[in-house]
Amino acid sequence: MKNTKLINRRNFLKLGMKASGGALALSAIPIQLLADDEVTVDEPLAQAMGYVTDATTVDTAKFPKRAGEAGASQFCNNCALYAGKVDDEIAPCSIFQNRPVRGLGWCNAWVAKS
Fold this sequence. Notes:
By secondary structure, the chain is mainly α.
């Protein structure tokens, strides 16, 4: 005789309740806790985007978007892709898969908040 477990309606509903409970518990974990460590300037994506932790050190010859009076006011903390508040020192950025970046940093993907 085979020792197989039948999937009847009752077992199916129990399994569904367990799965939905687990999914609900995982969705309650904030994104910041799931994100990896802070983005560093040595990472390939950070280098490609021109990310720096201190916006005043941007090479404006290489990234003219940061040059001039308008560029001088561009920081991660006032970018539309920055998930924190203006006064947050560090917060997730959607460019870097919601990994934390410095609020006073900058990258070439900077977009003004609307």
